[in-house]
Specification:
elongated, D-Maltodextrin-Binding Protein, domain 2, alpha/beta, 270 residues, 39% helix
Length: 270
């Protein structure tokens, strides 16, 4: 009888150990699917994958070639997270499509900057200075917010936020009576000789041989609403893997990689 009971106890112990191991394996084998876009974003996520792996988180990166599918795939459950968009873009997608998606953490910003061939700083702007800005609604709004953050102008209350794109008509205070010149964004680098300063997107600045961190006399703040982010479903935002995923991206390894690889065209927002 004692021997039979002993065998039962041993078998129960083996079963419990096997079951615990099984659950442990499942936890370790969990794969977090992250959607991003091909190019620099995907390059950065290759580094994030390695950091996450060291912390016990398996990340599978799925690349997309447009800005519509990653949010649709996240909302439907085909992805666990995505990383490719700015805050204003996510807000517009939520408004248009009703997604239950939230910002889990910031990644980087491709900063819009103020450039000049005549001035060393925005403080040197003369009275009546000509400042060129992009003429498309989204980038003009972004440019005006930068000028406001640097004290050049002040917009009326509510302008430039919550999807209300600001225009020069929304300027409430303009102490130096700056003249805002609206131009096509791609033309702004060529206009530098004709204006006192121009607010230029990073892609056009780089194409013109300008380095944001070296040549700009003022840069957008790295915690601007236009910083890129990691998005997850609202129901997942407090899950442990989300914290691990964001920490992996916001690690020193990733910070150093972005700074060394992209030379100011992408600046860490963490």
């Amino acid at each position: 009888m004692q021997r039979r009971n002993l065998i039962k106890v041993l078998l129960a112990g083996v079963a419990a150990t096997t079951l615990a191991a099984s659950f442990g394996a499942r936890a370790d084998d969990q794969v977090i699917k992250v959607g991003t876009v091909s190019g620099p974003d995907a390059q950065v996520w290759a580094v994030v994958q390695k950091v996450a792996k060291r912390e016990g988180l398996n990340v599978k990166v799925i690349e997309f070639n447009d800005y519509v599918q990653p949010n649709a795939a996240l909302d439907s459950g085909d992805l666990d997270a995505n990383s490719f968009q700015t805050g204003p873009y996510l807000d517009s997608q939520i408004k248009q499509r009703g997604y239950k998606i939230v910002n889990a953490g910031l990644t980087y910003i491709s900063p819009i900057g103020v450039y000049s061939k005549k001035l060393k700083s925005l403080g040197d702007l003369p009275q009546g200075a000509k400042v060129a800005v992009p003429n498309d609604p989204s980038n003009e709004n972004r440019a005006l917010l930068v000028l406001q953050s640097k004290g050049v102008i002040k917009l009326r209350a509510g302008a430039g936020t919550n999807g209300n794109n600001a225009t020069p008509l929304d300027v409430a205070e303009n102490p130096k009576k700056v003249k805002l010149v609206e131009l096509d964004a791609a033309q702004l680098p060529r206009a530098l000789g004709d204006v006192d300063a121009a607010v230029i997107n990073t892609n056009y600045a780089l194409a013109a041989g300008l380095q944001p961190t070296k040549d700009a006399i003022a840069l957008e703040d790295t915690h601007s609403p236009y910083a890129n982010l990691i998005a997850v479903r609202a129901q997942d935002k407090d899950k442990p893997w989300v914290k691990k995923l964001v920490a992996a991206y916001q690690s020193e390894d990733v910070r150093v990689y972005i700074k060394n690889q992209f030379k100011g065209s992408m600046i860490p927002s963490f």
